[in-house]
Amino acid sequence: MRELRRTGDSPEQPPATGQFASRRNLLLGTAAAGAALLATGCTSNETKDESDSGKQPAGAPGDKPGKKVTIGFAGPQADHGWLNAINEEGRRRAKAYEDVTLVSTEGSNDTAQQIGQIETLINKKVDVLVILPADGKALTGVGLKAMRAGIPVVNLDRVFNSPQAYRCWIGGDNYGMGLNAGRYIGERLKGKKNAKVVELAGMDSLELTQERTRGFDDALKNYPNIRKVARQAAEFTVESGQKKMAELLQAQPKFDALWNHDDDQGVGAERAIKQAGRDEFVMVGGAGSRHSMDVIKADNTVLKATVLYPPTMAASAIDLARALGQGKGVGGLAEQEIPASLTLYSAVVTKENVDQYLPTGFN
């Protein structure tokens, strides 16, 4: 199923706004700051004594090992740059801890197969589970099964259908992606009369795509001089990005800005733009690939920014799982327990700040 194979792509995205806002009760300032908060954080619930005064951030070379924790990691099939980065970030973070043993599944986009893989981890009696479900609704039952077996679950990005199926959710903000893309474009074009923008969206059947578009449209409402004149939905692939971008370029002889939802399909969009010889507009990408960041830094194409959907969330999920297994909270917060949910911020990467985010760019 194509819709289960792309950036943060689940019909069951955890709501970021409105009636469900309380389920995303902690907003981290930037993707890097989000990881840093957790990294400095899996601190003990016990009162510090002198022996703890020099404690280094979790995952740093000087971090003191604690109780040994076995974490089961059930991630996606790595058939997309972002999904591959999720798996790599999780494995890399686990290796940073002497007290963590990571037991990973092969990764699957087939719900039945992934359920079987998670049940195997439950039978192995791992201490904590980190799960990025192929389909949050379909895998809710196995999340509930793990929780009932006394194995806390860190639900990564694609949310289960019931909050009882996980102890903590951590993921990106699709509405925020659209909102910040719109704000960036709005500020670039606020002095231009009758500015026109176009949108290269993801798959329209997905709630994440709808949320990104809604955020984008809401941002543009604050710029009465800007009008969105066209929108095409692609499929988060290079091929679809090239095809749909070519159609947009043919239909719109001139416009001022383009927002593309996904950097992988953006590679195809860039090809179509180059083939058409067009350069009268600015392009904003989505997700934060290394390719996009390199192009932004070079500053020699229409691509001027990308809005993050950070795969570092997988590393932070390992931090949270370790904290759960050791009965700790998160550093920088007063509470003795980790939060129920963490929403990562969709930072806008531009030429001015790209060096800061280059280490998080995925291939």
From TrEMBL:
Keywords: Signal
Signal among keywords: yes
Tagged with keyword Signal: yes
Stored Gene3D superfamilies: 3.40.50.2300
Positions of the Periplasmic binding protein domain: 71-328
Compartment(s) of residence: Cell envelope
Region entry Disordered, spans: 1-22, 43-67
PANTHER family: D-ALLOSE-BINDING PERIPLASMIC PROTEIN-RELATED (PTHR46847)
Family per similarity comment: Belongs to the bacterial solute-binding protein 2 family.
Name used for this protein in its record: ABC transporter substrate-binding protein
Organism name: Streptomyces physcomitrii
